[in-house]
Amino acid sequence: MPGARLGSIHAHMAILRKIAIALGIILVLAGVAFWFLSRGDTADLSVEEVAGTEPVLQEGDPQSFPTVQIAEPVGWAKEEAPTPAKGLEVVRFAEGLEHPRTLYALPNGDVLVSLTRAPAKQDKGGGIMATIQGWIEGILFAKAGSAGESPNQIVLLRDADGNGTAETRKVILSEGLDSPSGLSWKDGTLYVANHNALLAFPYELGSDAVTGTPRKLMDLPGGGGHWMRNVEIAPDGQNLYVAVGSVSNIGESGMKVEEGRAMIWEYDLAKGRQRPFASGLRNPNGLDFSPWSGELWTTVNERDMLGSDLVPDYLTNVPVGAQYGWPWIYYKDNRDRRVEAPMPRFLDSYVRKPEFALGPHVAALGMVFSKEGNVMGKDFASGAFIARHGSWNRKPASGYDVVYVAFDALGNPVGKPKPVLTGFLKDDGTTRGRPTWVEWAGDGSLLVSDDTAGIIWRVRAPDAAPAAAIARLQGERLPARELTDPRAAFQEDFLRKQAGQKTN
User: Fold this and answer.
1) Quick one: which of 148, 162, 196 has its CA closest to 176?
2) Do residues 115 and 436 lie in contact, with contact meaning Cβ atoms separated by under 8 Å?
3) Residue 326 scores a pLDDT above 70
């Protein structure tokens, strides 16, 4: 018996030794990963050099480990505020919100804001390395201020007395929400994009609650590395557009899981059906329609792990059928040799070049064009306002600001991004907040959501008169013609030749 007990003790000790060795290996691997992550790649170029209509694009430097430099959020002191551009002022429109992301101004002046975070991750297995990766990602998300459960609320903000601060704040919707982001409204219907579905709720302007049963209009690919789903209704009210980001950086999880992603969908509100509208967009976010042409534009977050100088996020138009190359190609003619998935035939022949680079790793999110009645002043009268949420993988950091991109009279972006709000990023590498979304308030001021600080900022030029509308470009349309298959004409010519007839 003593011998048996002694054998059992030895067996237990052997198991404990194996567990200790396994834990030691995990800690060593995690330590090595953190060591690599702490080194990273330092940029050779300024953010400005990798921005504009002709950005400087260096040769890519593929990385096995991403550069990581996260600005830890520390919040704003009571007397602090972002630094506005000359001639502008900034005040707190609302504060004390839990992770506000997207903003939407209703026609009656009420403002909706989504309080949201990423959906809960599903455990898909993957062994020790997947566990380590998930653990590291959790630490990084927590440091960046984006960890935690999603509040899953839509809040109404109302400035009834017009003093520039929302004295009314009410949760008008929480049921049926799952990481909501995109918001739009039309004719008594509030459209909300969860991470996995587009929903329609009955809602009348001025109501303090959303009641009634929602309708699911379409399923959306759920979760993924990029989970936000922005929506925008076309000016004519016929179609709604939904931006859906990719799961991965460059398709490393396989292209099967990317089906329906990295693209913009078009949903016909009258017919109740959807179609792919544009693709090859790694992570499209902001959506707005050009006041010059009526064309849809978007902001896009490009790929990582090619160094601190690549690849720039961008602002671009989105014609129907547009293809921007992800994951195989970036910026029109730059092939990403890291991608293992076979590239579609002739893809390099029809990939489009983005219109305007916003800088590498800036995380461009919300975007609006200049609007009639805005009070931002003559220096910001004709262009686009963009929230750059801020990098997590560039040395030195980029973004953490709101910028303005000027457009010429023909509706083309020009110059370099111009600061509108700065001061989020501190000299010690921490950040007071992270600008996320932009929207026009009913009084013409610009609202900016700051998700980690829980604040909505209000920006305006105090002495500015309401801006005039941007003149819509006019031109003669090409005559309409019937679309025919050219093979039919070739076949007719062939048959005529066989019959001895003359061809046209």
Assistant:
1) 196
2) no
3) yes
Q: Give the mean pLDDT of 453-481.
A: 86
- Cα separation of 397 and 411, whole Å? 31
- On the CB side of 456, CA atoms within 13 Å amount to 33
> What region, left, alpha or beta, does residue 426 occupy, with left being phi > 0 and alpha being psi -120 to 50 degrees?
beta
Lowest mean pLDDT among 395-404, 418-427, 475-484: 475-484
Nearest CA among 336, 340, 369, 366 for reference residue 351: 336
Helices (H), 244-384: 347-350
pLDDT at 40: 81
Task: Say if residue 276 is preceded by a cis peptide, omega within 30 of 0.
Answer: no
SS3 content of the chain, % helix, strand, coil (to 5): 15, 30, 55
Residue 26, CB half-sphere, CA atoms under 13 Å: how many? 16
So what's the pLDDT on residue 502? 54
Tokens 């049926």 sit on residue = 176
Rounded Cα distance between 254 and 1, Å, is 57
Distance CA 410, CA 370 (A): 14
pTM value is: 0.87
Beta-carbon contacts of 487 under 8 Å, excluding residues fewer than 6 positions away, are none
What's the pLDDT tens digit per position in 21-63? 666 665 555 555 554 555 689 999 999 999 999 999 999 999 9
Quote the tokens at residue 470. Answer: 């941007």
DSSP conformation class of 64? S
Tens digits of per-residue pLDDT, 13-24? 667 676 666 666
| pLDDT tens sequence across 333-386 | 999 999 999 999 999 999 999 999 999 999 999 999 999 999 999 999 999 999
SS3 for 399? coil
| Domains in the chain: ranges and CATH | 40-120+144-460 (2.120.10.30)
Residue 298 has phi, psi (to 5 degrees) of: -150, 160
Tell me the per-residue pLDDT of 280-296, one tens digit each, with 9 for 90 and over: 999 999 999 999 999 99
Element (H, E) at 38: helix 2-39
41: phi then psi, degrees, rounded to nearest 5:
-115, 130
The two three-digit tokens of residue 62, written as one number: 């593929």
Q: Which of 25, 48, 213, 56 is nearest to 132 (CA)?
A: 25
- Residues with Cβ within 8 Å of residue 148, at least 6 apart in sequence: 99, 117
